[in-house]
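#structure-requests
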Amino acid sequence: MVGCRARTARCFWFLVTLLVLWAAQGICAKKKPPLHPINLNTASSAELQQVPGIGPATAEKILQARKSYGTFKSVDDLQAIRGIGPKKLDKMRKYLTVGKPSMPPGKQAAHSTPATKATTAKNQPTKPAAPPKPTPASEDEEQ
């Protein structure tokens, strides 16, 4: 009888432990989606992992694809990555966007195009404007 109670107690604690682990997994597995869509062309690994369905491995695959093939033209380009199919992409789509990668503020001036420089120079006067010529005074004003 004593052996039966011990076995029942161990079985009870085993089931309680499984229940706690299962509940913890459910709580931890749900991540809050980002408030704003994540730009695939500028996002870091940590930013990509905010999107439901993207973990560390998938985030690294996205970054590697961006490094190897250049910027994404569309969110649909993610289907070329192994592990991202149509169903998974449909769940992630509303959290992702594609835009041009932005340059850091200090580099924008250094990378301005010659056309921009020429237009700016053309719009600025090269010589100061001449002062207005005095009009001859009439005879009535002289007296």
